[in-house]
Amino acid sequence: MNATIDPHTPVDSTLLLTFCKATAETLRLDILRVLSAESFGVLELCHIFATPQPGMSHHLKVLASAGLVATRREGNTIFYRRAIIPSGSPLRALTEALYATIDRVALSAEVFDRAVEIHAERAERSRQFFSRNAEGLRQHQNQIAEFEYYASSINDLLNSEPLSISSRVLEVGPGDSELINALATRFEHITAIDNSEAMLDRAQTVLDPELHHKVEFIHADIDQVAQLQHRCYELVVLNMVLHHMASPAALFTSAGKLLTPGGFLLIVDLCPHDQDWARDTCGDLWLGFEPSDLDSWAQDARLVRGQGIYLGLKNGFQIQARLFYQPQPITSIDSEAI
Fold it and tell me: Taking the model in full, what pTM does it have?
């Protein structure tokens, strides 16, 4: 249960002073703005803001001391993101107001362009990896999680929702997972997209020939599809794909544009882990995700959290299978009922 803060409860002056000092600097406010729905490493932030590393490290330390940024180690790299506000924080209302105000501030063209460059570099690293390693990738990925270990859990989640056989389904990055067959067996209309032609070819090889008439394969990424289509799919699926995305947060926004009202986004991915070898062996950009991060990105994209399943594997990895959905618009009849 969330703690309720009495508005008349005294606030520690040192805590308030630390908060005010941390936010009384233009660059630090800009850093918080960039971290609103994204996490970046120190060197990436140095590039975005054209700031030397010692200076950037100082600003991040000040923000961290005020509880405004959180850190997460990914192998040898520390990533920073905007901190989630604890329910019992005496500065919760002030921090929420700060975040809401910062999010209305437009980034300079230079900062925005350099942030886009970081995303482009991440995406290009991912594309190059899959182009080079399409043939042997399944063996490496199976070291982490074979589809058969969590296939029944995905089936249980989909069974729990009102998805008909005629529901239109988009699978992003099907690769050579058997999920494409499970979806094509269950639904009549599947669109499979991938930004790697080599991996798209692998998906077509895996697909049962008797199911090919149900699946359309498109060489594209989800952002490109979202720009061309709108509210087209009752189900969007990403199976072990999010940790390869240059901007996981942006994925939720794109998926939200593609989902029909009441449509579902199914994310199957890893919880946080420290197996840095997955970067070189499997092309992972991220070492899993906190469930709270997925919740936050979904909320920012105006998607609603649905049901979820968490599975521990014998090799120490943990999988999260999560549903989010596009809420139905409130009609005049609904409004009167409320």
Answer: 0.67
Q: What CATH number is given for 13-107 in this structure?
A: 1.10.10.10
Asked if 65 and 75 touch (Cβ cutoff 8 Å), the reply is: no
CATH number for the segment(s) 139-337: 3.40.50.150
Question: What residue ranges do the domains of the chain occupy?
Answer: 13-107, 139-337
Do residues 150 and 177 lie in contact, with contact meaning Cβ atoms separated by under 8 Å? no
Gap between the Cα atoms of 87 and 172, Å rounded? 35
Beta-carbon count within 10 A of 70 CB: 16
Q: How far is the C-alpha of 73 from the C-alpha of 145, rounded, in Å?
A: 22
Confirm if 251 and 238 have CB atoms less than 8 A apart.
Answer: yes
Beta carbons of 27 and 46 less than 8 angstroms apart:
no
Residue 194 tokens, joined: 């991938």
Do the Cβ atoms of 304 and 324 come closer than 8 Å? yes
**Contact (CB, 8 A) for 111 and 30:** yes
Q: How far is CA 308 from CA 257, 269, 323, in A?
A: 22, 11, 6
Give the SS3 label for residue 86.
Answer: coil
Q: Which two tokens stand for residue 316?
A: 């120490």
Q: Cα(first)–Cα(last) distance of the chain, in Å?
A: 25
Q: Mind listing the pLDDT tens digit for each residue in 58-111? A: 999 999 999 999 887 766 778 888 887 776 788 888 998 998 899 888 889 999
Helix/strand/coil (H/E/C) assignment for every residue in 206-264: HCCHHHHHHEEEEECCHHHHHHHCCCCEEEEEEECCHHHCCCHHHHHHHHHHHEEEEEE
